[in-house]
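Please, structure for the following, as tokens.
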Amino acid sequence: MIEMFDFSKEPMVEEALEETIERIPASTAPGAKGRTMSDKLYQRLRGDITDGIWKPGAKLRLDELRAHYAVGLSPLREAMMRLASEGLTILEGQRGFHVSPISRAELIDITMLRQELETLALRLSIKHGGDEWEANLLAAFHRLSKLQRQSPTNPLVVNHQWEEKHRDFHFSLVAACGSPLLLQFRGVLYDRGQRYRSLSIAAGGSMRDDLKEHRQLLEATLTRNEALATQLMCEHFARTQELLLDAGSELFE
């Protein structure tokens, strides 16, 4: 395996890297640009649900949401229906919308599917990715490595900047797979899993060495070691599931 360079030991090199990275745009998921007002509301609502601001099973009253987000009823209904199509909300006839509940069974199901789809996308990216993909992946890891997972002001809240860079890193790993549908489906599963990660932090879940796991995954991918990279990715997801299940009754009420 090719030995990775430790930028932190060379200040001048790290400074040059910072300047270079600033010129490389962060990876963006499909549809991230040119959002309409409805799109922005949908993204904000989805983020609040996956971040655990709206708790599993909570009733989502449209009048309260209109006031909270300062939006009209039409874009709000549209956003709620989009979230229902992704399984993040449930429409129950006259009872209106609720945040979808969580369960051990769903967590295990999400983990299994993520392992299958993400490793497929990673194998394709390793096969087809070029210099630009490698540069974007390295930049995404560098951005992620400079942040802590938990909020600096509240250890029971996820650091939103870290979550954004974490999303970018995992997307960058598979960005060169060449399949828009595969990227779309793995994105839906990522969001479903993010809810569990956020709730686990709020419940005081166990800590882990995220940086080490991500660095190992980066190294295996950049050296085109497909077998090791896919193994590390599966173990990464399995470790997340293990920690979430260990949270026990505090997470799964």
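The chain has two domains: 7-26+103-250, 37-99. The radius of gyration is 19 Å.
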